[in-house]
Amino acid sequence: MDQLCIVTTGGTIDKIYFDDKSDYQIGEPQIGRILDELGVAFRYSVIPIIRKDSLHITASDRELIRAAIAAQDAQHVLVTHGTDSMVETAKVLATIPNKTIVLTGALNPARFRGSDAEFNIGTAVGAVQSLPAGVYIAMNGRIWDPAKVRKNVEANRFEAL
To answer: 3-160 belongs to which homologous superfamily?
Structure first.
């Protein structure tokens, strides 16, 4: 892997909490800060495409994400994405040939203590370097085929169909 291309789309991983507004908003992408703090031994670039909760990602947003990834020279792409519609986006990205694409996110914001963000990013970084071309989801310590996984909202985890 010469350089890892990271595409950010928002989602819980990048959410920040505003006390004065009593709600979450999507802030700056957190993955670069996380990778720098962990002292990774590879080069990467971060390309922010959109900044949305994945429940608000539209078909045209997914096409924008697909086109942006397809236009990259990089063969290895990590996508940070909200968990609620990650599977739908992964299915759209499956139309891109000859790239290893891994989507990941977090069930709790990366800025929160105890967030699963670092663990999921670490899993995704390992997966994107070692898997053959295709599209995968890295969540809850597992690598999933997007056609065979769903988010269980009640249990707040990904599980096999």
So the answer is: L-asparaginase, N-terminal domain (3.40.50.1170)
